Task: structure prediction
Amino acid sequence: MQDIPTNELIEKLAAGWSVRRKSWPDGWSKQKDALPPQHINVFELMADDWQGEPPSPKAIKINLNIIEAFQSLNVTNFIRRASWKNREKFPVGVALVTLSPKDILAADWEVWA
Result:
């Protein structure tokens, strides 16, 4: 968890972060669709003991061919093949990409956001 200055709290919530006050019991956090363990009032929002973490990327489309996957790069975080290790991916704005014929013909491409 990262410390969040009070002036950035609303922006982090809007961006989908999970946030919590350090004084809340472990396991409780405020997310977009979750309720906090207590009613949040103005005094809590002004408190300077917030921490949080950004949302994890999620696969939004799977089992695509390479054309469909690369067409999605302008509206997503990255694409990858399901058979690749987790660290291998193509982020938005890749200038030079080297693929094998096996990669080009594969139908296991994934779009992540």
